[in-house]
Design a protein that fits this description.
This protein is mainly α and about 220 residues long. It folds into 2 domains: about 5-40 and about 155-205, Endonuclease Iii, domain 2 (Orthogonal Bundle); about 45-150, Hypothetical protein, domain 2 (Endonuclease III, domain 1, Orthogonal Bundle). The chain is about 60% helix and about 0% strand. α2 crosses α12 and α8 crosses α9. The two termini are about 30 Å apart.
Length: about 220
């Protein structure tokens, strides 16, 4: 499947979003071209390990701990069996919490045993991937959606639980309160089949310091 980061898909997605949602169209005009290309370096296993390390941490702190994590294994992400057999003490010594250490070891164990065919996940549908990944301790729907968006470049993912997406929608539509996940899904429904791109613009809107023209909706 082509990723939404390819120029042709990007142009088609932006044209669609501006047509079906004028409020989002104003955000797109203010933010500029879509630049949400998926990360293709490393393996799917690398990407999921990184996502667990980065959960609920600032980028800088998470990056430091992730560097230490790879340092335990010669500067690279370990093999699944290596990770599964690593002691809790070793993982906690680099700054990982007890919970994250358990999550990483559970991931390594499932992949090593073959119960999670992680390197062929891209052959599955979006919901099948979410179902497979959320079997791992510590991986919820949001983390699986981030994998779909930023590892696989799936074009139609709407992370309804994401605070940044909620804040972006609140700002775009001048809502008095943060939208509930159900309202996020309702508002984002018109963005299909490019909800990944719409979500990316919500994140960029929240990150930009410049006022963006908004309209009600």
């Amino acid at each position: 499947m082509k990723s939404p980061g390819s120029s042709a898909i990007s142009r088609k997605a932006v044209a669609h979003l501006k047509k079906v949602d004028p409020a989002l169209g104003k955000v797109i005009d203010a933010i500029g071209p879509f630049k949400g290309w998926p990360a293709s370096a490393g393996t799917h296993f690398d990407a999921v390990c990184r996502s667990i390390v980065f959960q609920q941490l600032s980028g800088k702190a998470a990056g430091t701990i992730h560097g230490r994590f790879q340092g335990l294994f010669g500067g690279k992400t370990p093999l699944p069996a290596e990770l599964a057999s690593t002691s809790d003490e070793q993982l906690r010594s680099i700054g990982l919490s007890r919970q994250k250490s358990a999550y990483l070891k559970d991931l390594g164990s499932r992949v090593a045993l073959g119960t999670l065919p992680i390197e062929t996940l891209h052959e599955l549908s979006d919901e099948e991937i979410i179902s497979a990944l959320t079997q791992v301790k510590g991986i919820g729907r949001w983390t699986a959606q981030m994998f779909l968006m930023f590892r696989l470049g799936r074009p139609d993912i709407l992370p309804e639980l994401d605070l940044g997406v909620q804040k972006g929608i609140q700002r775009t539509y001048r809502l008095r309160k943060l939208p509930t996940p159900e309202r996020v899904k309702k508002i984002g429904a018109k963005w299909a089949p490019y909800r990944t791109v719409g979500s990316w613009y919500m994140w960029r809107l929240v990150d930009t310091p410049k006022p963006v023209p908004r309209s009600g909706g």
